[in-house]
Design brief:
Arc Repressor Mutant, subunit A, Rna Polymerase Sigma Factor, Chain: A, 195 residues, single chain, 9 helices, mainly alpha
Length: 195
Amino acid sequence: MFGQSTHATLLQRVSEGKDPSAWQEFHDRYADLIRGFARRRNLQPADCEDILQEVLMSLSKAMPTFQYDPARGKFRSFLKTLTLHAIFKRQAQRKGELDLDHIAEATRAASGDQEIESAWETEWRQYHVRQAMRVITVEFNSADRQAFQRYAVEGREVKAVAEELSLSVDQVYQAKSRIMKRLTELIEQQVRDEG
């Protein structure tokens, strides 16, 4: 689904630093999440790329001593903190103020902010949907995917979708049902893999 690794084994491979493909897989998994959250914080696309690079650099420094322990906290919380720190650092650079203590304090304060938490959780859920949809693209035929998109996602009238795609109404319902079931399975597996 995301390459060959579960979440925990990918983190282990990255922390060991012996597998160059691990960083690429990590990037493939989390780049859109980090960029998406930065966009939610009203950053420009170029700044979002800078945030992504900053987070990856911070992770590369932290990973050699990183020990993933779900009992100590979730990786997504750690990633959120690194992303927030990178955002505050970028904003401080834009203002010409690079007080690292201030940036660290802003990061700590923001971690408890309900609006920020809500934005991170929304982006995290959308991240899971995007990852699952990559699998759907491979596992389902074009007609089923189009029926699902038009009926379930866009909310179009089932009869119109059926006519447009030369399907029966039952086929549209079945496509929606099968894809929704598979999406649910995939997302639940992703959440389990995260620990």
